[in-house]
Amino acid sequence: MEKENKMKEDKNKSKKYPPQTGVKKSGQSYPANNGNNKKKTNDSAGGKSRAADRPPRKTAKQRRAEAKVVYESSASNRQPKKQSFAEYVESQKKNKQQPQSRKLLAVRNDVEDEVKELLDADEQPKQESRSKTPVHKRASKAQKAAREQSRKNTSQNGRESELKQAEKTEKTVKKTTENGKKLKIMFLGGVGEIGKNMTAFEYGNDIVIVDAGMSFPTAEMPGVDIVIPDITYLKENQSKIRGLLLTHGHEDHIGGVPYLLKELDIPVYGSRLTLALVENKLVEHEIFNYRLHLVDESSQVQLGVFKAEFVHVCHSIADSMAIALKTPVGTVFLTGDFKIDYTPIGGQVMNIHRIAELGKNGVTVLMAESTNVERAGYTMSEVVVTDTLRKVFNSNVGRRLIIATFASNVDRVQQIIDISKECGRKVAFGGRSMSKVVDTAKKAGVLNFDERDVVDIEKVNNVPDGEICILSTGTQGEPMSALTRMASGQFNKINIGKNDTIVISASPIPGNEKDVYKVINNLYRLGATVIYSSLADVHVSGHACREELKLMHSLLKPKFFIPIHGEYRHLCQHARLAESLGMDENNIVIPEIGSVIEVTNRKIAKKDQIPSGIVLVDGLTVGDVGKDLLKDRRTLAEEGIVLVLVGVDTTQGIVTSGPEIISRGCIYTGDDSNSQTVEDLKNLANTALQEIDLKELNVTITKQLIQKPIKSYFRKKYDRYPMIIPIILEN
């Protein structure tokens, strides 16, 4: 029985490994075997004789060929190595082969070593008598080894989904590196400062702009109304621009839109309230040929190679959005201005679930605001303000309430309207911007109230103090705002008195503290009671604090990080926060205005600069106010002006009148208190005129000769540098 089983086993083996046919070796050929030859038993040896039926031994050439097939089979599974376009070109020059994947490098090396070992062994002379293992079995071992490597390959690819994803990424990289294209992120505003936010994204022949804001002028910009970004680069590349995306309706994000659309005819995308506020601005600027496209958080907009997805976030204005910008190098996520509020006034919480999904799918670059990065913990909910305001209403029964807030803070306005109705008070809107925003928000369906609960500002004096609440602008001490004019007694509709309680529901923007406290002091002088953020929780920020920023980083898990929306110290603090969460400092770039940051899915780096800076808007003039003009304005404001008037007859070459001295803001010439100074200035002007041939009058040179001694006089006697303007009147 045992012998019979053994014979069956041998028969099966012969079927599994059939003898080789027609193989040449050393100039001889083995006869073809039809597979019907039966194995014979060698009785003297006590077992089977394999010599007759043994498959012919492969030659070294054949084994090399077989090994080559094994190697090439393994090599065919290799994936391209991720590398830059420059590296790819260099490797092509060297070996004219596609780059190999790092993940399969170890497997490739193992297979190469095994093949080399097999080939080397085959080159060595062998004696058949010393070969105890049949050749066909040795060949099958090589095949097994190849299969084993293939299994290892599959097990390393055991992350099959990961490898498939990597393959897709490789295709993207190939497209990305084609013609050296990279994603360029260019900052025209909003970094190293608070305000005039504007960022441009460029890939190939496509540009997308996010936000177009403005900022208020500083003390060094007398006469300037607003400041907007320099858009020289955008005008030079306007054919590439596919659209403008807006995150929300605050002035530092939409204030520059009218000036942008005057130069560029591009579509604008934003939420309902944002577009409603933008449309108001465009009508004011008499711009009627515009293209506004409404989006919501379910919207995805294709703009050339870019695809923009909008994600709802909480902020101090309704309809605020973050933007997930899908690019050829991966997703760029811009948070916009946000905070995490679980009990917002509007009832719609931030879409954290979608943000987490985007993070799971992979985010290449995170661009997050940095305004409150220095504040620990979490930003308080708007519900806190509601509770505080309700207490203020209840504790001021019989008194007139005036509440100042940002006109654009529609949620806050809604809070005040609702509480006023609860407490039996009518509402009036003071200030042009407040009235306009309220009207716009109501038409957009963001603000809800009954018109019967509203009183015209002109008629508030006809309503008892305890039955009225006035909403006003002026939280930042703006000179022409309603609250500032009330405090200075210049708001003829309302006179502040002892029966007034005034609530300033905002915090001073850095730099505005002086103006704000001046208004508060004036209100106290008029006898009013003033409640502001230092005394009660009448305001909460609309920006995320450190713990909220940490949550955003943790949800998105970005490869690279660019802090935005803050002064330079804020950006640096945010960069350190990202490092504390485990991000490599080499993957963080702190931008500046004009910075161009290049991004691939493997690398981020700050590169060139583009034309950038500020454009000053003075009334209806845009960009005409330059450094020299500002310098003159500052000189006039700080040092004053001196006019020297001279009449000249060029035909006779004589002075017919003057010199006369007129001064404003420098010395007082209305009485005799400075008569000696005036006389000295006249003498200096006459001396200069005597050196000139008035018949051959050169006005420019004459003015310079008069200016020089007078400037020297003021410097030595008064240590002042007034503006000296000679005026030559020719007869």
Strand content: 15-25%
Order of adjacent strands in the largest pleated sheet: 11-10-9-7-6-5-23-24
State the secondary-structure class: alpha/beta
Low-confidence stretches: 13-52, 68-83, 95-112, 114-139, 172-179
What is the number of helical segments per DSSP (H or I, 4+ residues)?
21
Any idea what the CATH superfamily of the largest domain is called?
Answer: Ribonuclease Z/Hydroxyacylglutathione hydrolase-like
How many DSSP E strands? 29
| Main β-sheet description | 8 strands, mixed
Tell the overall outline. Answer: globular
Give the radius of gyration.
41 Å
Helix amount: 25-40%
Q: Give the terminus-to-terminus CA distance.
A: 143 Å
CATH fold annotation of the largest domain: Metallo-beta-lactamase, Chain A
